[in-house]
Amino acid sequence: MEQDMSRGNPTRLIFFFMLPILGGNLFQQLYSMVDTFVVGRFVGVQALAAVGATGAMTFLIIGFVIGLTAGFSVIISQKFGAKDPQSMRKAIAMSVLCAFFLSVIVSALATLSSKSLLRLLNTPADILEDANAYLVIIYLGITATIYYNLLAAILRALGDSRSPLLFLLIASALNIVGDLILVIQVGMGVRGVALATVISQTISALLCLYYIYKRFPSLHLKRQDWAIDWPMIGRLLQIGLPSALQFSVCAIGVMIVQAVINQNGSNTVAAYSVGTKIEQLVTQPLITLGLAMATFSAQNLGSGQLDRIRQGIRSATLLSILLSMLATAVIFAFGEQLARLFIEASETAVISQTVQYLHIVSYFFIALGMIFVFRNTSQGLGSGLIPMLSSIIELIFRALAAVTLPAMLGYVGICLSSPLAWIAAALLLVVSFQLQMKRLTALLKQK
């Protein structure tokens, strides 16, 4: 169902729009955590470390895909807000073509370079082959991932955040069943986990496509919509590529941290892997709030309502602070119990390092929430540069902290690398947003 976010109470619209996205993201995290649970419990700590060692490299590519499709959806959302269905269909058609060519290129390059990158990251020799096998399967399935994310982003651009939730529920169930069959019954180990993920993403993408075709006649693309429109492609890439690169730049920082962690052995790799999984789970409300703000700001920019964008950012900031405090409370109340879900009770050192990581990063969730709100709002307003600069700031601070702090603080220094990057990026984004709004106000007055 389409939803026009240029009318109605901003706080209510943002909150209820984010709820289905949150549900979908939580289920996406669920099957990611089921992967971790199955590997940790039924294959072993070494296999858990192998999958964990791929986290930064998976984020590098999957983050590129998510950023690209989110950038494309900004243009679609703006055309929807401007009530311009012809331009909206053209934007969708060009997005589909761009996504195809980029997915082929990214898949080929990532697959060919995976083992070399794992060696570059100091991946322990005892987990190298399993880590590479997992990555190759994930990378070969990147086309399904990019099209699911694109189709879900198109639905969200139209204000429909509920339908992607349904498809993720189905994909999550299929992924869990696939894990149980391929890992436990067939004995495929980490390869089975990767294959189950790719299969579930493919089915989810097909379901999204079928739903759009049946429920949105206005999106039925005509022959003329497929005619190459270079200005539209240029506009899509102008927003999409910086959005994609911002994820990749962040991922490079994460890879530097991963390289430092890999030097500390398989136990530390496993602890960091589980810790980041739990962190991603409890911060999903912050992520989805940011996604809601991208759609809200894009639609209201399309309709020329900057005052509503200001109202929205105030509401989102307050929500973000409250959700950050809740996430921190969850970590301190249940962090150890969550860690024990994935790690055998006998692995006390791994559990201890996992909980230590969670306690340290949770103090800084408010800064992380500000990043999601202001970065996504800037993207919704059509800026690719500001989010990109914030990612570069994150990279610099994360890399400097990861390289210098462990020598002074040991494992605590590793844990602090991301929080310091969050603070620096959040400060840049908040200041940049104010300048961006002043510029847009001046432009609208000229018109």
Description:
By secondary structure, the protein is mostly helical. It has one domain. Helix content is 85%, strand content 0%. It contains 16 helices and no strands. α1 runs parallel beside α7 and α11 packs antiparallel against α12. The chain starts with 9 loop residues before the first helix and ends with a helix.
Structural class: mainly alpha
Q: Compute the CA-based radius of gyration.
A: 21 Å
Order of helices and strands: HHHHHHHHHHHHHHHH
What is the oligomer described by this structure? single chain
The chain-level mean pLDDT equals 86
Strand residues, percent: under 5%
What gross morphology would you assign? globular
- How many separate structural domains? 1
pLDDT < 50 runs, ≥5 residues: none
State the separation between the terminal residues, measured CA to CA: 33 Å
How many H/I helical runs? 16
Helix content: over 70%
Major sheet characteristics:
none
Short description:
The chain is mostly helical. It is 85% helix and 0% strand. The chain is globular, with a radius of gyration of 21 Å.
Summary tags:
mainly alpha, 447 residues, 16 helices
Topology record:
Layout: H1 10-42, H2 45-53, H3 55-81, H4 85-120, H5 128-140, H6 142-157, H7 163-185, H8 190-215, H9 230-262, H10 266-282, H11 284-302, H12 306-342, H13 348-362, H14 365-380, H15 385-409, H16 411-446
Helix pairs in contact: 1-2, 1-7, 1-10, 1-11, 1-12, 2-5, 2-10, 3-4, 3-6, 3-9, 3-11, 4-5, 4-6, 4-9, 5-8, 6-8, 7-8, 9-15, 10-12, 10-13, 11-12, 11-14, 12-13, 12-14, 13-16, 14-16, 15-16
